[in-house]
Amino acid sequence: MPSRVLDLVRGRPGPAPGGSRGGWRRAVATAGLAVVPTVLAALVLLPDLVGLDRHLPFAVFAALRPLLTVLAAAGVVLALVVRLRRPRRPGRRRAGVVGLAGVGVVVALAAAFVVPRAIADEPPPPGGTALTVLSFNAFEGRADVGALAEVVRRERPDLVVLPEAGERFRTRIAALVPGYRSWTNVPARAADVRGIVVLASPRAGDVTARTISDAPGTPTDTRYPWAEVTGGILGPVRLGAVHVVSIVPGWIGYWPGELELLQRWCARPGGGSLVVGDVNATPDHSAFRAGTRGCADAATERGESLTSTWNAGWPRAVGAQIDHVLTSGGPRARDVTVLDVPGSDHRALLVHLRL
Asked: Which residues form the Endonuclease/exonuclease/phosphatase domain (predicted)?
């Protein structure tokens, strides 16, 4: 006699219809509660570890990793408090604990990338030539030239690099800082957003600037022309004045390649290099780390890497530091200051170095 019939005759209840299917569904739901939160946290906080940060929206997640790490850590603590106050069914309790632990591990790993950038390295030894550099994105030439001129007069930088500034902006700022010589790397008819203006103080000596603008479609092409500054106070050091394309739809495809072109300075054999300008990337981007291999980020060395330079309309703890002064082959940063200058969506970066 079939066992099912024997069970009925003896008064034993049989398995509920669909019982095994229900158990399978519960197992899948439990696994989902454990795994899905961890995977989602990793995609948001650690996309650079698998190269996803070269695509949207993951490039934005990577740029905001310091802020997102703080928010995720707060979320883990809040979820833990809630779980301790509310009873849960045993199966879901175990899954929730595993999921919360997984998210906690991801947050801890993200924090391990972020926190060291708030701790300054040992300062450079005394000696060498002092050099002060100011980098500031002029926001399509709309920055307040009077306020910028006041910063230049007060801080007396030797070299000033102004992305998104062309001939019109150069003329206006030059009139307010008459002791400085100035260049722009685009023709007079070009929109300010296309250009980079370089200012040099009398102390900088006989420095010269040249445009770097390769033919469209070539491997070394950039959407915005760059410039290189040499001579005078720089000695054998070459300074690249750059404006890397933004991580927005239609442009992000060019972004990793442009960052890779920073190797012309960071991997330069012999002599030292500086890279100054709007790089539209942070140390949390894998493309930034690859393109700047061989360079040190001045703000990271001085523990100032978590102060945002964009967006200037947000609190300094929110946003991203996408403006940089990078050093290689000798120059070292003594201190870094982030300055507010009206009229731009960027803050300025003032760096004192030793050559």
From this structure: 134-346
